[in-house]
Amino acid sequence: QLLQRGAEDAAVMRVILALLERWGVSDFLRRVDLGLVPGAVGAAIARSLAESAAPLAFVREFLSRVPPATTATALAAVPALLSPMRDLILARIAQHPGECGPLVHKLIEGEGAEVVGAALVTSKGSAWPEEMLQRALRALAKRPKSDQLVVQLARDRDAEVPVRLLAFEALRQRPDVLAEAVKWRAADVMEPTEIRDRLGELRKVAKA
User: Fold this and answer.
1) Buried b (16+ CB within 10 A) or exposed e, 64-94
2) How buried is 23 (Cβ within 10 angstroms: 0-12 exposed, 13-18 middle, 19+ buried)?
3) Which end of the chain is more exposed for a tag (fewer CB within 10 A), N or C?
């Protein structure tokens, strides 16, 4: 399979890019089984599309049809596409968090942290690998504006309890924001025991 070999053989990768140039973007997207494109090949194709100023509609189609992990690898490798593909990034991370680790890590280290936060809130942290979730929450809690997304997730009663507990924990590094997040609310009496106990503990921390 040419696409799979392209991930391991630079010469084969050059053949794939030559086909892209020869056929043109539209024909390439029609003739290639994009569901089989591995990450390294997807990154090379995305870079070629960006450098050739291909219409964004074609770039979006390509990134939408390859596997989620390939989308994530390609976008992490081509920063120029992060801004124009923001909505696609949000959808991919929210729907397939476990396959988007490289992209999430890149975004939370730069200006894309709010996209990660929006994806977290949209997905309520469901199916996020714990290590990736913790890293994202800690990074978001450090940033003005993004910290409110952590508060929102911590207080979201539709989110799973372990996710909410991790969100509250991430806010410990921001005592001012933590104090806001743990303020008493009438709905607190309806919270699960684990959340009520954590709120009581963190209120003492916030007052200290």
Assistant:
1) eebbbbbbbbbbbbbeebbeebeebbbbbbb
2) middle
3) C
Per-residue pLDDT of 98-146, as tens digits, reads 999 889 988 988 778 889 999 999 999 999 999 999 999 999 999 988 9
pTM of the predicted model as reported, rounded to 2 decimal places? 0.83
H helix runs in the chain, sequence order? 2-6, 10-23, 25-31, 39-51, 56-65, 68-77, 86-95, 101-108, 113-123, 130-141, 146-154, 161-170, 175-181, 193-207
Closest CA to 10 of 38, 35, 31, 41: 41
Cα distance between residue 170 and residue 147, in whole Å = 9
CB 35 within 8 A of CB 65: yes
